[in-house]
Specification:
Blueprint: H1 7-17, H2 20-26, H3 34-41, E1 47-48, E2 63-65, E3 68-70, E4 74-76, H4 82-85, H5 89-100, E5 105-106, H6 114-119, E6 126-130, H7 135-147, E7 152-156, H8 166-171, H9 181-187, H10 191-198, H11 218-228, H12 235-243, E8 249-254, H13 257-265, E9 270-273, H14 287-298, E10 303-307, H15 313-321, E11 326-329, H16 331-340, H17 342-362, E12 376-377
Parallel strand pairs: 4-11, 5-6, 6-7, 7-8, 8-9, 9-10, 10-11
Antiparallel strand pairs: 1-12, 2-3
Helix pairs in contact: 1-16, 5-17, 13-14, 15-17, 16-17
């Protein structure tokens, strides 16, 4: 067993173990991937202030996110197709998050269904929905999430139309994978993955196939998906979705100050500053560059969370220091899942927690809730000096 000390170690194992189309689905962005790259590289522009001779005993990373107690302010972000990264992947990830004491958010585009995850976990999890046109499907989806006792609803608001991801198109991404000469050749090198997939019955989009009108098999799913997303989405429609759910609502995909203000106006409990991991609008600023001005604009009105680009506990710390009350990790936990299943997700959380805790000690902070901009050295032009 290799020694795992950082997320890149898990990433390398993930790449070796998982079919190319599913690894690339995780580790790619749209168009030129500029925003995808800068989501991570811009963290390095923020430097930390080392402090000494401060009592560092009894440190704590415990906090809350939308009123829920968490072992550290990190949630597993909703990521589609995770049951293709590792058999029954969403169940494994939810179990790991539950044991660690952080929220798990299930994607609508998961392989394991809401009911599957609820059956195999003991504590409530979060559920993510898209802004789709089909009210009947959406209302039944909300009802299923309520029946599963989901504790928060995450509404993704930055996917009215899908950004183009070249690798997915070239790989012929599908669940289960379509058999072409290229995919068969690649699958032949991933025997352990294939044997695990043969032992599970969960190989399709469990929240959609058999639930959406006219979608009874993967073939009909493609046509439904092409028509499902609502390009006419506006704030009144988001307000309507909010009225369908009587628990905490989190709007994910905010990257503009004006949109953050409108999100607060429609009654959301929290927003997630996110550019969808660089998978939607390429050429947009990184999430970490946009975070400070959004916190300054609405941080006193609504809980601000952060997503896109986190690969370490230091990244988590920097986002919290800039004012986020919670963070979401996506690729970091998926690399763990693809590499080692449930144990890999646990390892990813352990790596991030250790980095967060150790860095807190070295900058002189004992409580994660006390992090502020005073622990950072921030370039004067960090958010950009734009005309």
């Amino acid at each position: 067993m290799p020694v795992i000390t950082n997320i890149d170690d898990l990433k390398r194992l993930h790449r070796r173990r998982t079919p190319r189309m599913f690894y690339d689905y995780c580790e790619s962005g749209s168009w030129t991937e500029q925003t995808f790259r800068e989501n991570t590289s811009d963290f390095s522009k923020l430097r930390l202030r080392q402090r000494i001779a401060v009592d560092m005993a009894n440190r704590t990373t415990a906090s809350t996110m939308v009123g829920q107690e968490v072992a550290m302010p990190v949630a597993l972000a909703p990521v589609g197709l995770c049951g293709m990264q590792n058999a029954d992947g969403e169940i494994k990830a939810a179990r790991a998050a539950e044991k660690f004491g952080v929220p798990f958010c299930l994607s609508t585009m998961s392989i394991c269904s809401i009911e599957d995850v609820a059956e195999h976990t003991e504590k409530p999890f979060w559920f993510q929905v898209y802004t789709l046109k089909d009210d009947d499907f959406m209302k039944r989806l909300f009802a299923r999430a309520k029946d599963a006792k989901c504790s928060a609803l995450v509404i993704t608001v930055d996917l009215q139309i899908m950004g183009q991801r070249h690798k997915d198109l070239k790989n012929g991404l599908s669940a289960p994978p379509k058999f072409t000469a290229a995919s068969i050749a690649n699958l032949a090198t991933k025997v352990p993955w294939g044997l695990e997939m043969l032992r599970t019955r969960r190989r399709f989009f469990g929240n959609i196939v058999g639930h959406a009108k006219g979608v009874s098999n993967p073939g009909s799913l493609a046509a439904w998906t092409a028509e499902a997303f609502d390009q006419r989405l506006d704030w009144e429609r988001i307000r309507e979705f909010r009225s369908w759910w009587d628990g905490p609502v989190i709007l994910k995909g905010i990257l503009d100050v004006e949109d953050a203000r409108k999100a607060a106006d429609v009654g959301a409990d929290a927003i997630v500053v996110s550019n969808h991991g660089g998978r939607q609008l390429d050429g947009a600023l990184s999430s970490i560059r946009m975070l400070p001005q959004i916190v300054d604009a609405v941080g006193d009105r609504i809980e601000v969370h952060f997503d896109s680009g986190i690969r370490s506990g230091q990244d988590v710390l920097k986002a919290l220091a800039l004012g986020a009350k919670g963070t979401m990790i996506g690729r970091a936990w998926v690399h763990g899942l693809g590499a080692m299943g449930e144990a890999g997700v646990t390892k990813a959380l352990q790596v991030i927690h250790k980095e967060l805790d150790t860095t807190m000690a070295l900058i002189g902070k004992r409580d994660v809730r006390d992090l502020g901009r005073d622990v950072l050295l921030i370039p004067k032009d960090f958010s950009g000096d734009w005309a």
